[in-house]
Amino acid sequence: MDRVFKALSDATRRCLLDRLHENNGQTLSELCDGLAMSRQAATQHLGLLEAANLVSTVRRGREKLHYLNPVPLHEIQERWIDKFERPHLRALSALKQKAEHAMSTKPQFVYTTYIEATPDKVWEALTDPEMTAAYWGHSNISDWQPGSAWEHRRTDGSGIADVVGTAVEAVPAERLVITWAGPDEDRPNGPSTVAFDLKPLGDTVVQLTVTHENLRDEAERRQAAGGWTAVLSNLKTYLETGKPLSSPLWS
């Protein structure tokens, strides 16, 4: 929390957060446009925001996109503000979600968490059927080769897959991209896409960023946000303690 307050104490960094709030998913060049600072100075400010977990980054080819990560702000809100200004903040939250949904060309949900584990272990937890069953309640089944099918299969022995798709990209311990849809779901614009980006921070910590895009509407975005928050919290607990949370958050 000290890093968050330090990051927010600078007017330039607050300006960068405001820009991402208005138009999430910008490159460094876009963020520097119109600001009286060099790219190097902006990079330093963004580094402090990223260290405070206020900004997450996702690579798209040669571009590095920056996203506002609302989790630390939400923690400040709950502790210091929400109990006094809850109705007002609900209205602001609804406005923010509406603005983010309007940016259909950018990823519609981005979530970053930090896990005390190695990239290999996080990769295994995302792709191993037994490990996914332990913390997700479903087994992820595939050979994880680009172009191969994958299934999010129930663990009750029925063989029913609630989600199916294709492995689009699979770089072990670095990046996994899959399509995501119900087995009989009618999606005129095609299935949604989920990307898992793993970034080692030292020898024992991994930054895991999940990007879920091509969501149909605000209702599906809210559903994805709630689902991924629960699953990734359970994944983090499972890898760090050896067992999942005592109560499935998605129930």
Automatic annotation (TrEMBL):
PROSITE patterns: HTH_ARSR_2
CDD domains listed in its UniProt record: HTH_ARSR, SRPBCC_CalC_Aha1-like_GntR-HTH
Positions of the HTH arsR-type domain: 1-88
Membership in a protein family: Belongs to the AHA1 family.
Name of the protein: Metalloregulator ArsR/SmtB family transcription factor
Species of provenance: Streptomyces hesseae
Lineage of source species: Bacteria, Bacillati, Actinomycetota, Actinomycetes, Kitasatosporales
